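fyi for ur records
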Amino acid sequence: MVESSPSASSTPSSLEDPKVLAAAAYLLGGIGGYGFGYLSASTVIGLLLPLGIYMWKKTDAFIAFHAFQAFLWTVVVAVVGFVLGTVLLAQTQAAYANPYAYAYGGGFGATLGLIGIFSMVGLVILVVDLFLAYKAYKGDKFKLPVLGAMAEKPFL
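which gave:
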């Protein structure tokens, strides 16, 4: 669902422009998404930056919506990354527990498959982040299916 923002100017160029800040929230939140869970420094920073933009400009409905949706999207990405990372870690630990069974029982191929899945998920996340930033930069209010409704009524 796309709505245009009447308050955004036509040529974004500075941090005072709502479209630039809205797009920046998605791109800065992407920093946390690529940390893929485990509460790494990049995950914490990626969660705090969109939240900081939201707190700073919560009086502007356009910026507040995009910043909060970027925060929620980063939370989802971090949870997915945590789950995938845990599965990959368990698979890798199986190699150390019994290397013979791991190598000849198909464990090596399973690990390569998990790395491939991990890479594809990362690519999808990157594409979604760039798409959301582009839509915000154009002045559109694009709502993600579940997160968009939550961002309309932030709980902070």
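The chain has one domain: 18-146. thats all i got for now
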